[in-house]
Amino acid sequence: MAGMKRFDQKRGLAAFLANLRRLPDTLSYSIFRHGRPRSERGRSQAVFSSLFLHLHPTRVHVRTLGLTATFGLGIAALSFFIILLVTGILLMVYYTPSTELAYNSMKDIHYVVPSGRLIRNVHRWGAHLMVIVVMLHMCRVFYTASYKAPREFNWLLGMALFVVTLALSFTGYLLPWDQLAYWAITIGANIASSPRELTDALGITQWFDPGGLQKELLLGAGEVGQDALTRFYLLHVMLLPIVLVMLASVHFWRIRKDGGLGRPQAEQTSGAVGQAPDLVPPPGGENDKTWSLMAVVRDRSAATDNEPGDTVATWPYLLRGELVVFMLCTLACLVLGVLYDAPLKEIANPNVPENPAKAPWYFLGLQEMVSYSAFMGGLVIPAVAMVGLALIPYLDREAEPAGVYMSGRAGRKIALQSLAFAVLLAVAWVAIPVNFGWLRNWFPGIPQIVIIFVNPGSLLTLGYAAWSLVILRNTGSTRLGAIALFTCFVAGFVVMTYVGMELRGPNWDFYWSRSHWPVH
Amino acid sequence: MAELDPRTRRSDRRMKVALLVTSLATIATLVVAALQENRFADWYRLRSRYALLLNEMATDDAGKQAAAGFRVEIQQNYLPRLDVADRCITCHAGLEDPRMADQPRPFAAHPGRHVEFHPPEKFGCTVCHQGQGRATETDDAHGRVAHWERPMLATEHLRARCSRCHLEPDLHGDAGLMTRADRGSNENALLLSRGRQLFNEQGCMGCHAIDGRGGRRGPDLSDVGDSVIHDFDFSTIGSNAPRNVEGWLSRHFLDPASVSPGSVMPATVSEAEARALTAYMMSLGRSGPAEYSWAPAGRGPATSRADGATLYQGFCSACHGDNGLGGRVDAINTPTLNLPSALAVAGDDFYRFIIEKGRSGTGMPRWGAGHGNLARDEIDRIVAHLRSWEPTGPDPGVADSSAGNAGNGEMIYEARCMGCHGWDGEGGIGNAIGSSGLLALVDDTFLARTIVSGRPGTAMPSHRDLEAAQLNDLLAFLRDWQQSPSRLPLPRAAPGDQTRGRVLYEKLCADCHGSQGQGSPRGSQLNNVSLLRNASDALLAATIETGRAGTAMQPLAEIMSAVGSNNDTPDRDIADLVAWIRQWEQPESWRIHRPMVDDSAKAVTAGKASWLRYCAPCHGEKGKGKRGGDAEYAPAINNPEFLQAADDGFLLATIARGRAGTPMPAFGEGAGAGVWLKPGEILDLVSFIRSWQQP
Hints:
The complex is a heterodimer of chains A (520) and B (695).
Chain A lengths: L8 H24 L7 H10 L9 E3 L5 H4 L2 H22 L7 H10 L4 H28 L8 H23 L4 H14 L2 H8 L7 H10 L6 H32 L8 H4 L21 H6 L14 E3 H26 L24 H9 L1 H22 L13 H28 L2 H4 L5 H6 L2 H20 L2 H26 L17
Antiparallel strand pairs in A: 1-2
Chain B lengths: L5 H33 L3 H16 L3 H9 L7 E3 L4 E3 L27 H4 L2 H4 L2 H4 L8 H5 L15 H5 L17 H22 L7 E2 L2 E2 L30 H10 L1 H4 L11 H12 L25 H8 L1 H4 L19 H6 L2 H10 L18 H12 L18 H11 L1 H4 L14 H6 L2 H10 L14 H12 L18 H11 L1 H4 L15 H6 L2 H10 L9 H8 L6 H13 L18 H19 L20 H6 L2 H10 L21 H12 L5
Helix pairs in contact in B: 2-3, 9-12, 10-12, 13-17, 16-17, 18-22, 23-28, 26-28, 29-32, 31-32
């Protein structure tokens, strides 16, 4: 036994106890790859070496923390998404996506599932708030010119996220399988089939029916039924969330790669696109292993172009701010959820149409347009709007101070003028047909094809385009032209959505108030 | 943190405070939500109170044990077979506990002995009471909230739910089983029965079908008790009327035209009757699953056992009237059925056909299989009911020509018979009644029976309105044409052989009388049930043997020699022929009538001229008829069902005899006033009318 190592029994016990005592630290180290961050540097290290936190730079510009810089809207959107993810998974436990059982499972969730009612309410209000917040986030990014080079692609990603958010909300709308759901989705699907108006007017629908194809792709059948419910459920709980997570990851990553939050000073040090950035040692110091990697990456870092005095550590300052936003979002959902129950109407009944049958609120502007012309309102105008939005960063390439709302006083003036113009025009184009009728009333024999192209919706769009071209010509600034156009579309969207939501009653007739609707 | 400037530090402090406040507020909201869900919920409060009540009432060990075992939690009866998840027993916890009889709701025991026979764990609650079984809050559960389609039923309509599984007579309750509360619902059972009875009395099935039986003019009512408020338009019943199905229905019965604009349903019921009808309506709907059901199939109001009068009342009376004298719906444009002049010319087959096939273009629907779904034997019973409106007429058995006055008889003949049988009985549309050979062969009873009952399937109408003396007078007049003494045929004993008779018939008779005995312009119809019933074998045999002088009918011997048959066994041949002809005498209906007019272009052209002159003013150039009030109504006669149902005889007799009691005049010679059409002209007219009929 000469070669056998001898152990001191007492020392072994002591080591065991010591290891046990240190277990939290060693466990945490093994997970986070560093000890408890007690210093500025330690926290930077922690941010840097965590998969989730490293989407942030270790230090951010102090401006990032300011309320008005972002209003926390991006984080709010993410927060709502997380809330929806959690509540959605809980709802999945009890929900059955079958036309026979769905409605009853909603009733059970409402009445007997522990916290079921609150969870559903939070999910519902969270979904609406997320759509609102995503829209506001888009406005914030636009008005602070944060879409400009090098952030053009992130603007596109943001638009994709916007579309996915709407799709998530829309697909979720059907799942309760009540009258609200059934008829809102029916209207939505009819909007999808709107190219038919043109093909019908041309008399070619029987050979070429893209509208019918779109509708059938959406519903899996001629009308809303089990097929639609199955695919909406699949999209809602699986495909769209995965797509959203992937897009959002790239979106966040690009925020950092594009130099963090846009701010007025940025353009002073950041070069043109593709130019090698200045190589400045990161705060970690020369011994940091990643230094060499950071050095070769042709990119800019949020922290690289500023004096240390302008920056604060991400941990704790930025993370704390983000946590506040998250808590605010949670609180908002909870308070709404406690005060107001999510709507659940009668069980879906294909034989009893809701009148008026309304799409989800964010599509009511479209529905208003569709009431003038399905083809223009359901296809051309939204397509023009989306393409227009997507092109903005590529057509407006003026070097602007990012992070300044409306790019200064001139922009603010243009925005206000555009707002007034857009609201007046939108109101006028709603008021004229309501009070005087439209071409069909004036010339009963007029071909439908004329109405498809000449209707309040298309004239409104044309008016907005013309207005922004005038601004563009008068000011000689593409940025100001873009502000005019964007403002017009946002104002038009708001006005039309309001009209569709509040002023349209049975048969899509105009009513000043819901209380004037005829009794049914 | 030394690097932080004071502004950042201040903002960081604000951030910390915000974090604290939002976190605390979130926790507080969660606490509120938890309390709201678990402690302030209706079901929790009520069930806690019930727990206390149980404790108070626990006097014996069993009671104490029950009280101790009682848990404040949601209870439910989940019955997938009934699509029921009823949580009512969470609050109505004392439902089956007799000790709770005098407790206030929701803890009271269920009144009566219903739960004894319908334990909630087998039936649930909403199956009878409606409401929202899944809900756990009072108002939601009772269903009297927005967006719940089936609020709880009022006591008055609870019995209606019983009839989903029980036969109506069972609902009146066994007195031995009844309690005070039951007696109340027994009144409701009577209300329901009254409603069912009214439904038949008012003839509602003329327009409304239940389980496939009934008209299609109004909405199908099979599931009306399952309908929900969204199936009705409440804007027409006033804003203070109750917004539930029962309320709408009952208002609607009082004033259908204004509650359901455009409806032709008449307002004929009182308020109490409207309540009864509503109760009955609420009982119509999906039956329970078979294992729950105590009622056999066929719960329609008039089953096939019903007699003709009941069937008529249920299916026909709304339009044609309780006594066939004009109804409650669209009476102006509905033919009067209780009209002797019509009943006299129309055979049963005519009515059967019209009832089964309807009359397109008019309000008369089809009642046959696949439409109104009346069975053929039910239609027969209805036709028999129509016949009950006819006078019986004098008894042919006691008719005696020797007691009559031929002079009076001549006047009767001219008024009633001459249009078809001719001035001298030479025939025209009708048979040559003046044939001396015929008159010698037949007795007074035969003639009287033919005159009184008519001969359905031919143009010979019935004359039940003759008095016995008039009948004798008429017979006396006819007998004046008889030149030779009567030699009534003697009965022959030997029964014939049908098979051989058939061979002979096809060889000797089919040319003129048709292979099925349907007749042709050259020979009369032999498969006529009323003829065969009236004519004895002896009469048939004698006619075959001797022929009928003055007509195309030759004596048998001559016919046989004409076709070159041998005539060795005349008696046997005659007996066999009679046997074959006799087989057509069956109580068969739905027979295709024989054509009595020719369809040549000449006849049609001649008929058209007469039509335009005499008929078009009322019936229209194309026979569309005329609708509208003020005795202007003229039925459409160009619709295919009518043309198929009405045989030539019907049309000929109607033209010749007119239709007393309507504006339709008689055009036959000697009849009516004004125009006299010759038999040939009437035949041509019918040829023209037939030209509308698609082959």
